[in-house]
Amino acid sequence: xxxxxxxxxxxxxxxxxxxxxxxxxxxxxxxxxxxxxxxxxxxxxxxxxxxxxxxxxxxxxxxxxxxxxxxxxxxxxxxxxxxxxxxxxxxxxxxxxxxxxxxxxxxxxxxxxxxxxxxxxxxxxxxxxxxxxxxxxxxxxxxxxxxxxxxxxxxxxxxxxxxxxxxxxxxxxxxxxxxxxxxxxxxxxxxxxxxxxxxxxxxxxxxxxxxxxxxxxxxxxxxxxxxxxxxxxxxxxxxxxxxxxxxxxxxxxxxxxxxxxxxxxxxxxxxxxxxxxxxxxxxxxxxxxxxxxxxxxxxxxxxxxxxxxxxxxxxxxxxxxxxxxxxxxxxxxxxxxxxxxxxxxxxxxxxxxxxxxxxxxxxxxxxxxxxxxxxxxxxxxxxxxxxxxxxxxxxxxxxxxxxxxxxxxxxxxxxxxxxxxxxxxxxxxxxxxxxxxxxxxxxxxxxxxxxxxxxxxxxxxxxxxxxxxxxxxxxxxxxxxxxxxxxxxxxxxxxxxxxxxxxxxxxxxxxxxxxxxxxxxxxxxxxxxxxxxxxxxxxxxxxxxxxxxxxxxxxxxxxxxxxxxxxxxxxxxxxxxxxxxxxxxxxxxxxxxxxxxxxxxxxxxxxxxxxxxxxxxxxxxxxxxxxxxxxxxxxxxxxxxxxxxxxxxxxxxxxxxxxxxxxxxxxxxxxxxxxxxxxxxx
Length: 682
What we know:
2 strands, OPT, transmembrane helix, membrane
């Protein structure tokens, strides 16, 4: 049966319904919690558009009057909320530095909701040029539209076949998400709850004075994340691992002397944590600046053309435009933006209310912070929207944008915050204000990164843009309301790197929160003039070298590329975290090769032959991420309620070596099952 292409502009269907908003809010809780946990653990989040579309379809098909546009609104809302969790790339730094003892609900809600909703407002003028007229690929947006179309076609087929007998329900893909989720949830519970499976293993070797490490982690969520990012980014992260643990740590360990009483592991890990990670920071910073620089001119042209189109639409009158071309009006955009700026002003004023400053000085700092968040946020919105359309939301460098923002706002506060810096604990407050200001920018960037993908999905299926933009605003509020409680829960259960809420907690179980740790180190270094510039400069030089190699490869191979940001993340992440991501990327590559061989043997085009298996792989990988993440949140609740680090453990410390081998065996077994389930459709 031919699939529906696009709902015509003259056809009006229910879109933004109460049940859809309620379902979107429920999915929001799942994906926001999952992304917060994954981001704090490994510094990565995943695009929730595709799994949200599948879940929405599976639930709404129970209602006879549901339609493709209502499904689209649900996935739009849930996708926006899940994406807003990128705020954890910076916000936990306030707890790490001791400025916050937890996550105040109203301040967290204010900065997340206002920043995210500004991201929606900033990207509305970009829709016409960057979505309707552009040839940008928008990978997640196109994929989500295809899933909605397939589901709509299956629903129509079911209705046609319903002639006195039960309709034959075709698979939506929900079973693949559930299968992946149950598998990773069971393994995660056995590892983090019962402690009968290990979560990593490492081999340590010394050649002369040089220390080497061969790491491997067994997280199924990271296997799924690696599958989604693909082989190019995976090999880039492997390059980062080699740079950090095959070159930098061995060189530094050979140049120094291991202190008495320390093991190889303690010595090498200390060098990596205190020095090598700053090489990664330098690489990430250069990669972020390069990405923004290369996109500046097309972004500027897009913004100019979009505002021109918006002005023409406003002059012609909203009522004269077809349903599929009606954005929120310029009046509504202006009014909502002013309200959001007011919310930011109040939020920053509350944040600074405890500072030992005069009222005039506080309001001046509030003005600086809000102006920076607004102006830089607008520029970032356009850049991130373009980057998401070009490379996809999952690989767009939000953390890199955050690094640029924290440097700029820290330098701004250093130059303009004279009165603040002169009072007692003023430097600490200035660092905190810089982090809080950057949080608003990251919220704007993350939502901008996702919105145009959703608007692309809506345009492909024939949605009404202004209704979709309202759904995005609702998603921002729903996601912002979830983030604070989840952060509070995870912090009290696991703690963050160098920030444990209780003295008796196990540092090995702490969530690494890599981006927040890095941004705090950068802000502190700028204000105290103690930044590890030697390692950062080495990292910047490495980043420039990688960019040059990447440009050469682009002009010669046209296939092999080196994403500089991914290399930096590979250097910066703990190696047992990066390794399973690389394994997932290799699994995706091997599956692609197998599917290409089978397509050639069958005499069919690869894209047509591999469409269903590739969709199944994406859904299983998403399920792996969601299952482990939700178990992590559940275990956080249990740990917080009992006050014990391992309340459900049935194995002691002496079982750890055996648990590591069992963990490896289960990891390989699940990867094989993944392989077989995907190829089953080929």
